[in-house]
Backbone:
């Protein structure tokens, strides 16, 4: 059995007892990646020699000493490519610095290892928008892994990463975690530094861990969080020891079931698995409470104004002047901009830039952008009101299990609608986790189903406490396939 299928917790024990070295882990990992990545397409690249050199000087007594973590391709790691799944950056850009999240992980002894595929600039829910590789679901290679952190989820669930980092703007950690069958956590907005995360929608983006267990999620979160002077939105608040949330009971906790989230249109197998998990929570002593989040139906349309608006501004920097792709065919300055962007960006990125530019343009700003900001406030207030009565809110992570590759490719609107349960969480800046809660059978494959737990701002502790209790009760720790 390969070490790559281990949890962080298991590896730590083996490393500190000197049963294995961090070199063993990296070499083993590289071996299974070479074996399985041609099928899975999770990694865009990896540099074993660099990682081995870094592992040499790692202090094994640190909390994550010697643990290799795979990194989504939109997070800067010094000296490594950071292409955001885009032709705009592939082959031309190497990170000149470490992202804040990476510096924090290094301080804890982590060795970043491997670049993971993603939808171009994190726009998408299937990883099919990557311009660089096709990532497949480890449970059924004819299906999508979800997205945009599809490479990060497929690598963990496919047993070719110990754990990985993703980023989540509207569900991009939680949804692929649900579709691949691993644990994905989006922290409260501001918990983790966004410095060095290539910005998609700055008021929504957040980095978080994808892991095999809830315990591993808590361990990684301990090291990821903290104030970073280089990100003015990162919060200056104490970081608790999140592992203190593990192994506790959940008796008397109130679990909110939003009426608007348990609707028809959800895949029957997904409903059954999520309802089963809710029953488990009840059997552990939690108290179910029906709640209402009345503005849920505004979530997707609000997001698809705000996120493209911010993206259109953030992506203006990719103009062929400072870095990235530069068109060779242009003969004057205007052509230089136009052809560089025409050649460098894929169709979904162009669609978002067009949408964003439109909603921000003079004459439309009030009608779209300002209105979306107001709707965003209503969505946040829905959660505030609900959390007066409950400790945790529960929903399916995604309304359906993994689709076939190509199934929604020409129907962006249908794909956008699938983010209905994850998007409101980003709009409200809340922490949420997805963990496996069962499976549905489809054409001979067993496809994972994820349950989403949402907590109050900064209450990752309760989130992890309930997730850990549920994971153990369900006995669903996502082993590799
Ligand atoms: N699927 C959503 C989108 O396409 C969310 C992406 C994300 O969280 N990065 O924008």
Residues:
């Amino acid at each position: 059995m390969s070490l790559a299928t281990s949890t962080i917790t298991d590896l730590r024990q083996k490393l500190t007892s000197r049963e294995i070295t961090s070199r063993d882990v990296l070499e083993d990992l590289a071996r299974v990646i070479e074996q399985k990545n041609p099928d899975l397409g999770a990694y865009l690249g990896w540099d074993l020699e660099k990682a081995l050199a870094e592992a040499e000087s790692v202090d094994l007594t640190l909390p994550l000493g010697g643990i290799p973590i795979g990194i989504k391709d939109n997070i800067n790691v010094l000296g490594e490519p950071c292409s955001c799944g885009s032709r705009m950056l592939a082959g031309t850009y190497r990170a000149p610095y470490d992202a804040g999240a990476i510096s924090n992980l290094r301080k804890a002894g982590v060795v970043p290892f491997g670049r993971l595929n993603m939808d171009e600039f994190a726009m998408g829910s299937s990883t099919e928008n990557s311009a660089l590789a096709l990532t497949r679901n480890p449970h059924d290679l004819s299906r999508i892994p979800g997205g945009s952190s599809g490479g990060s989820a497929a690598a963990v669930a496919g047993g070719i990463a110990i754990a990985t980092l993703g980023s989540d703007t509207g569900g991009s950690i939680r949804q692929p975690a649900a579709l691949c069958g691993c644990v994905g956590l989006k922290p409260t907005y501001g918990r983790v530094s966004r410095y060095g995360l290539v910005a998609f929608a700055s008021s929504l983006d957040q980095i978080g861990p994808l892991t095999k267990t809830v315990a591993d999620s808590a361990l990684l979160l301990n090291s990821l969080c903290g104030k970073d002077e280089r990100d003015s939105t990162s919060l200056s608040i104490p970081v608790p020891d999140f592992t203190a949330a593990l192994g506790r009971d959940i008796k008397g906790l109130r679990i909110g079931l939003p009426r608007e989230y348990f609707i028809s249109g959800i895949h029957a197998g997904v409903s059954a698995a999520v309802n089963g998990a809710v029953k488990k929570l009840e059997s552990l002593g939690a108290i179910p409470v029906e709640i209402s989040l009345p503005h849920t139906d505004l979530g997707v349309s609000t997001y698809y104004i705000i996120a493209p608006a911010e993206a259109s501004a953030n992506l203006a920097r990719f103009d062929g002047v400072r870095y990235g792709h530069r068109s060779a065919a242009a003969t004057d300055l205007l052509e230089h901009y136009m052809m560089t962007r025409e050649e460098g960006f894929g169709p979904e990125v162009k669609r978002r830039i067009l949408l964003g530019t439109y909603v921000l343009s003079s004459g439309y700003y009030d009608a779209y952008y300002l209105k979306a900001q107001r709707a965003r406030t209503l969505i946040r207030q829905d959660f505030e009101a609900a959390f007066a009565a409950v400790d945790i809110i529960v929903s399916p992570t995604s309304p359906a299990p993994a689709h076939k590759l190509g199934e929604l490719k020409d129907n962006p609107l249908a794909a956008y609608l699938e983010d209905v349960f994850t998007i409101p969480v980003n709009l409200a800046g809340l922490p949420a986790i997805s963990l496996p809660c069962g499976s549905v059978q489809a054409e001979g494959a067993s496809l994972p189903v994820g349950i989403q737990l949402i907590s109050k701002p900064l209450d990752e502790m309760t989130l992890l406490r309930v997730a850990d209790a549920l994971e153990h009760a369900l006995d669903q720790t996502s082993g590799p396939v």
The chain has one domain: 3-253+389-474. The mean pLDDT is 96. Residues 122-125, 148, 168-172, 200, 307, 419 surround glutamine (CB under 6 Å).
